[in-house]
Design brief:
Elements: H1 2-7, E1 12-17, H2 23-30, H3 40-59, E2 67-76, E3 82-90, H4 99-105, H5 117-126, E4 142-143, E5 146-147, E6 160-161, E7 167-168, E8 178-180, E9 183-185, H6 195-201, E10 205-209, H7 217-223, E11 229-233, H8 248-251, E12 252-256, H9 260-267, E13 273-276, E14 279-282, H10 300-305, H11 313-323, E15 339-342, E16 347-350, E17 358-361, H12 370-378, H13 387-391, E18 392-393, E19 396-397, H14 401-407, H15 415-425, H16 430-442, H17 449-460, H18 464-472, H19 481-498, H20 524-529, H21 534-541
Parallel strand pairs: 14-17
Antiparallel strand pairs: 1-3, 1-10, 2-3, 2-13, 4-5, 6-7, 8-9, 11-12, 15-16, 18-19
Bound molecules: zinc ion.
């Protein structure tokens, strides 16, 4: 997220999958009478070499133009092959803003076999989705009778961008097909890709243009999703007569599933997450509250008098500001752009190369008091030499960080809380935001909570429509703003009730309404019976 703040949205999303039939792998295993999956170490090593090369092509050889930053995450398929999800952030003058630009780099059509036979074969081997749907219901992409990857796509004469900002790639109905598993697949089944990368790397490489308007956190959630888990059950096959006690807790183990490839990847200490440029986590603290690390039996006098106690990352920032005029041009978050933290020396030094990292100041929620206000000041004030400098606004000294924030206009009219929820929404899921809002209510932090609610309800209820659509198994279901607000208030009320309070305690806040049908969400039978969208039915029959 720190990279997004600095770079804006990523431009391209690339998925690169290991090909077990790469000649480098086959050469090794076939001469030994083995199959590729017998040597996960070889698969991992070769994939890492090719991935490094691909990143070099993207970043240094600028296949898609000058690159500002690269992030990737490695995942392992169930049967074990590694693949990389890569996010590419391009320089401002190397973006692909028009559909014509997208056509230059991304294709989703079958090439002409006679004109470009190599390319044709590569698309046939790696870039055709399916068969799935009615042709093969057992395909792994199928769920509830539908392809989860939404194939087949629609034929379109030219590339367009839909109203939600998603690209629809050109797929002409030109009669070209590729036979896979005895079924003819046409342009509707081509996975979007780039010809150069496909031919060079001889593997499945999906290249997608990123939607620039949708909230970025969902993309990151996908990139950073956790390990595969498998729930394994152990049961006793022969039940002893009369022994009716079954320890259900012991019967189920939530196991983490690691494929052989993942195991070797980790043994080799290859990165699972990669970021370039590096993100420096910036610590900060209130006066005399820095962290001190010591052993149990260290004498306390000695610990307190250690010279390093006075040299935290944060305090060294003050020190650097005293001597360097260049340092004083920067806020704390901007500092790692030009200075580098030397953990061994406990000080910041001027960068000697053009390399840099992006600073990220720890998030602290409101309610942590002074620390929260200190952080607000750090976002705006440049070059302070001591804590007092931070509290000095327009040549006027203030007693607390909070007063200084007031003087700067950072916390007028509950603005701080609206800003805080907005900031947290760039990385936090709506459920977290609702907890944050409830916490602000419970701590009586906001002077006019109804204003904060008005300004942020859309962020707090971002997941509700999606939830409804899943529940109704209808991707086109809609909810009105009032319905969304009401559902969100219901969820907030649940959080409040878990803390022994309710909206009755906050008279200025709108209260949730409860429909009789909505009361018992826990009863599956009733719920299943009520699984229809009253709104769309009303529209249909009016
Ligand atoms: Zn499918």
């Amino acid at each position: 997220m720190a990279i997004c703040k600095w770079d804006g949205y990523p431009d391209l999303f690339i998925t690169f999958t290991c090909n077990p039939k790469w000649p480098e792998i086959l050469r090794h295993v076939t001469s030994r009478g083995l199959n590729p999956e017998d040597r996960p170490d070889i698969l991992s090593r070769v994939f890492k070499i090719k991935l490094d090369r691909l990143i070099k092509d993207l970043r240094d050889n600028k296949v898609f133009g000058a690159v500002k930053s690269v992030i990737y995450t490695i995942e392992f398929q169930k049967r074990g092959l590694p693949h990389a999800h890569i996010l590419l952030f391009l320089h401002e003058h190397n973006k692909y803003p028009t559909v014509g630009d997208i056509d230059q780099i991304i294709t989703a059509e079958i090439p002409d076999e006679t004109v470009d036979p190599h390319y044709y074969r590569a698309v046939k081997s790696f870039m055709m989705h399916g068969p799935c749907g009615s042709a093969r219901k057992s395909s792994p992409c199928m769920q509830n009778g539908r392809c989860t990857k939404h194939f087949p796509k629609r034929f379109t004469e030219s590339t367009t961008i839909d109203e939600d900002g998603y690209p629809i790639y050109k797929r002409r109905d030109n009669g070209r097909t590729i036979k896979k598993d005895g079924i003819d697949l046409d342009n509707r089944y081509v996975v979007p890709h780039n010809r150069f990368l496909l031919l060079k790397y001889d593997a499945h490489i999906n290249v997608e243009w990123c939607n620039q308007s949708r909230s970025i956190k969902y993309l990151f959630k996908y990139v950073n999703k956790g390990n595969d888990r498998a729930t394994t059950a152990f049961s006793i096959s022969v039940q002893e007569e009369g022994s009716s006690v079954v320890d259900e807790i012991n019967m189920y183990y939530d196991c983490r599933y690691i494929s052989p490839c993942e195991a070797t990847w980790r043994i080799f200490k290859f990165p699972i997450h990669y970021r370039q440029p590096f993100v420096e986590r910036l610590s900060f603290h209130l006066p005399s509250e820095q962290h001190v690390i010591f052993s149990d039996d260290d004498p306390i006098d000695e610990v307190a008098s250690r010279p390093t106690v006075r040299e935290s990352m944060f305090l060294s920032w003050f020190e650097t500001n005293k001597t360097s005029s260049e340092a004083r041009e920067l806020t704390y978050a901007e500092f790692p752009l030009k200075f580098v933290w030397k953990p061994k020396l406990k000080r910041w030094e001027k960068r000697k190369t053009s390399a840099f990292s992006i600073g990220r100041i720890f998030f602290v929620p409101p309610g942590t008091g002074d620390l929260y206000y200190l952080r607000l000041l750090l976002n705006v004030i440049k070059g302070p030499k001591c804590y007092e400098n931070l509290k000095r606004i327009n040549n006027h000294d203030h007693n607390t960080f909070r007063e200084a924030c007031f003087a700067l206009g950072l916390i007028d009219d509950d603005k701080e809380y609206v800003d805080c929820i907005k900031e947290a929404s760039s990385w936090g899921m709506p459920s977290y935001l609702r907890q944050l809002f409830s916490m602000l209510l419970l701590s009586n932090s906001m002077s006019r909570p109804e204003n904060v609610w008005q300004a942020t309800w859309q962020l707090l209820s971002e997941d509700i429509l999606h939830e409804e659509r899943v529940l109704l198994a209808n991707p086109e279901a809609e909810l009105t703003d009032d319905e969304l607000k009401n559902r969100c208030l219901q969820k907030l009320e649940k959080v409040l009730k878990s803390c022994g309070r309710s909206f009755h305690d906050f008279p200025t806040m709108q209260r949730p309404l409860y429909n009789e049908e909505e009361v018992d969400h826990n009863n599956r039978l009733i719920h299943d019976e009520l699984r229809y969208n009253r709104r769309s039915l009303l529209e249909e029959h009016q």
